[in-house]
Amino acid sequence: MVSVINTVDTSHDDMIHDAQMDYYGTQLATCSSDRSVKIFDVKNGGQILVADLRGHEGPVWQVAWAHPMYGNILASCSYDKKVIIWKEENGTWDKMYEYTGHESSVNSVCWGPYDFGLILACGSSDGAISLLTYSGDGQWDVKKISNAHTIGCNAVSWAPAVVPGSLIDQPLGQKPNLIKRFVSGGCDNLVKLWNSREEDGQWKEDQKLEAHSDWVRDVGWAPSIGLPTSTIASCSQDGRVFIWTCDDPSGNAWTAKLLHKFNDVVWHVSWSITGNILAVSGGDNKVTLWKESVDGQWACISDVNKGQGAVSAITEGQQNEQ
Amino acid sequence: MAARWSSENVVVEFRDSQATAMSVDCLGRHAVLSGRRFLYIVNLDTPSEAPRKIGRQSKWDVGTVQWNPHESGAYFFAASSNQRVDLYKWRDGAGEIHTSLQGHTRVISDLDWSWFDPELLVTSSVDTYIYIWDTRDTRKPTVALSAVAGASQVKWNKRNQYLLASSHDGDVRIWDKRKPSTAVEYVAAHLSKIHGLDWHPDNEFILATSSQDNSVRFWDYRQPRKYLNILSCQVPVWKARYTPFSSGLVTVMVPQLRRENSLLLWSALDLNAPVHAFVGHDDVVLEFQWRRQKEGSKDYQLVTWSRDQTLRIWRVDPQLQRLCVNDIAEGVEELMEGMTLLPESDKALHPQDSEPQHTSGHTTEDEEGEEVASSVTPASAGKQDQLGLPQTLQQEFSLVNLQIRNVNVEMDAVNRSCCVSAHCGSHQVRVVVKFPAQYPNNAAPSFQFVSPTTIPSSMKTRIQKILTDTSLQKVKRNQNCLEPCVRQLVSCLESCVTQEESSSGNHYVLSNSVNPTLPTFPRVTNTYGSYQDANIPFPRTSGARFCGAGCLVYFTRPITMHSSVSPTEPTPRSLSALSAYHSGVVTPMKMRSETQSALRLYSGSPTRSEKEQVSISSFYYKERKSRRWKGKREGTDTTNRQIKLAGKVIIQEISCLLPVHKTLGEMYILNVNDIQETCQRNAAAALVVGRRDLAKVWALAAAATGCELSPNADPDAGTPWARHPFGRHLLETLEYWGSPLLVKMCSSPRLAHYSKMHDIQTLAMLCSVFEAQCSPQDYYTLFGHLPYRSSIFTPHHSRFPSYTSSGSCSSTSDSGINIVGRDSEHTAPWGESSPDDFRYGNQGYTDPRERERDQHDKNKRLLDPANVLQFDDFKKCYGEILYRWGLREKRAEVLKFTSCPPEPHKGIEFGVYCCHCRSEVRGTQCAVCKRLTFQCAICHVAVRGSSNFCLSCGHGGHTSHMMEWFRTQEVCPTGCGCHCLLQSTF
Q1: CATH number of B404-494
Q2: pLDDT at B384
Q3: Which one of A7, B84, B420, B948 is separated from B501 by 20 to 30 angstroms, measured CA to CA?
Q4: CATH class of A159-164+178-309
Q5: Contact residues, chain A, for B512 at CB < 8 Å
Q6: Percent of chain B having pLDDT more than 70?
Q7: Which Pfam families does its entry note (chain B) (predicted)?
Q8: Predicted TM-score (pTM) of this structure
């Protein structure tokens, strides 16, 4: 059954803007308007404050855990135009890198799939997207996409590392040629897809998805389970959540499906690990879970209300399948 | 100019009063609240004491209540009730109805005591008459004014004893009581109903009207055609009244739209933004009145009554009073100074780029308040004052955030133009932007290229079009457009230049390296949430995220935090919505709770430290109703109350919603040597977790793999898959799992009705099992004496085609044909081979084995790798999930079956360092010291070929020598004492 396994009192001095657990679900990172990032050990229902990371000079908007194969690494971005990458070494958290290349608030950070190494995408209100790649020895290589979104970029999310269109012939036994791809959303009401071919390492705008009538607040590329369909969720100030899918191996034909129109801004979407459930949250202070039914309709399967109750999930769907 | 939190207020709640009207007596001692059953007399000096009550029997609410404004009649008040006016006498703590005035035939809409004669009272009614009563003769009105239309408001002039104003829908009529037959003047003031009417306290000709049409207008009734001034709001205005001091104005907005901050103080001279908002009432402010100034006190007190059943008293100190006069004059002066300074002194000298910075820097330092207060606040949007238009442009100029690389903007507010210079690569662009007088109210600026613009004309046309589009888009909504236009210009220019030079390739380096010598000016520190944050999204205060392998982490705002705007209002889009908190229009909670006394003292702009306290939480704070005194000086307990601003983070286990099971992940096995057992054990595992469906699948998988043993004995059985009853069964079942992937791979809309279960676990496990079953060497161990039969179980056949054929067989036949058709078009090899083979093989071929062998050879050459990759993806994804669960061995088991195994670990690379000089070397000889780098510990010769060495002590040598040595020895041959065999694996 769905059950609350932990309730963490973060003791932040101001409102929380993001909370995220690491790869294994043992550590929780939170960030807040009080300019701090906190890390808690939440194993076995406990909550031990592991670190209180100070370094930002403004509200911290988002955190992101890197894949554990690179160590215990966390990125955070803030109103202070900075991106800080924190690393745990021998039990102590320290700044690993501080990126100050943006000219306005950095709103979103997202680590790329581990297949590409340590690579972080950062979206900022200066309209640019930065890609920070660890090149070893404490060096970070910076690529910047200027004017990715007019007015500002609000969210970035990486595509899973899968072979582009698995139907394309490829010699057996060779390492598939992966393409780095991510999606971004911005104040130009657009969702944009970007890719980088290995040859030159340059980022190019691949697609421009237009459906929202106001700022796009968040985008989420669904994890792949090996199917050749790519799925992206986007949400906006206009209260709409769209599910974008592309069956086309070349990745050009995207179709939008309206998940729901909410009454207030929707500012966060998150996919479950198998990509079949979407968690949606917004200005109405509610969290809803959505699942695609057999006939392709999206249905709300739960409602987390006001932080009070647990997810009272309807598990019928699951029952039926069994 | 920015107001500070000045009015610590008195809050008293009268929960059951249901009072609809309120009035404060002229001595400032009492307020009367008129409910349906009682009139409550509140002593304003001790408001928290229980009020005295006067009972009344009426089924009607009190429409209007008003104390007599003359000291001589201070104990009288009039209350209208339907068609009647009751005159109450309040003396010595007791009150009674003194007399009643009856004459109106419909409900009375308003009443007003004369400012000159304590006995005179005017009433207006829906019955179209306006009556003036002399309280000494209550039988009938002394004067009757016939208006033909019903009146909603009536007010005596405060300077001329004969004059009155009444409102009728959107019109105002001015009456002289000496000429009752007809109105003196008609003013067609508004398009919609007038809710409020107020004469200027000092000027007998001027009055203010507030209306449903979202505006307050100011009139000199001698010029009825043209209002003097207008205050545009976004919501209907319920009341607008002049303040008793200077030229202030207090407005109440129509509240169902604006629950909070509906009570605003304005300077009548500058209607761009309110100077103060009285924050606290949760509901409609029904009435507000000024209490008479206490002797010796410079403060004024505003008494308000709201539908939230609280009476509040707000202190308006002299500084706040002064704001209603001084601001505009000072502000404009300084702003003008700032503007005029620039073009003359700075332009020529400063390097480009620094100018706009300088401007904003200047104003930021000196006139923070000015800037911020003029921002659009969430509470009000007083704007577009006709007089204020030039300032709007000036303000835009002073506020515009043009920290854009390679751009310089020279602004000339006086001539309503500015000049934008930008350069990118070798190109230069100079555009003159001219702003029409109406800008930004649906009037777009013009753009003109001037020399030394170097771009080609095609590019000019393009940029011109983009600029026009951008500006139109903005001004259509009456928004400023300079900044977006400049940004567009730059991005356009960059993209054009990039295109042009795309052959040279490196666009990023290009755009970054343009003129690196440009001075990088110090950036003006933005104030959090200020105007400049208009492009930063409003922060998330709740969220949910799937984390780990089966957790949902979510956080929400604490329940005590409410949005400070009404629930019907959407959350603002941008962070600049917080700018209201800078201007003090809304006071952030922290300011309220922290340094109140200090704040009150500031008369100029708030200091930086204060501003830093502005936080997102300010937006969500909602004052609690409190009976308690928030006393002026002593009320510390309530104000220091700590409120939790951070909600809890909740972690929820949601793995039951996922199609994968951790328990199954743990229990599933993959034994390549005994597929039967694997399937059976997995079936059992599925049963344990209650997945009977999966158990069935595994049982069938077992049957399918196991049944292959039986044809062994039968040499004729060339088509066991198709013929065997289990085979078909299995396929049908597997189709259940395989279909989602078929849907995708065949892109057959006909199959789209199959559920997308996302059950990666089952998919990956089945793929692995079948792969294991088919891998030749295993096959040999299972069916060693029949090697040729392996041809049936090529990876191809058993993995993908079996699903396909089943999918097509079990669904309608046409879909099967459809698939085959499609497949044979696109991916001939398998489309041609297996499905046909499986379905028709036993009918069409005399020697199926032969054919299969052929097929197999063909397949060997033409294996469609796409499917294999797809199965690899399944396994990889499942491996990833196993990794999250911490089941690394299981993951390794699964990943063994990928056709393209994960890359070998690359994390450790043995660097060879010269043992003499410690420099890194390649080969056998050190390039630096020319000595041998790696000497065999046994033969002391440089090692070239195969070598082994101990990871612990670093000694080693030729593999053969080492092997020999360690066959008998355990310690290092060099005699270093290292137990190499224990320390590392040779």
Answers
A1: 3.10.110.10
A2: 36
A3: B420
A4: mainly beta
A5: 144
A6: 61
A7: WD40, zf-RING_16
A8: 0.51
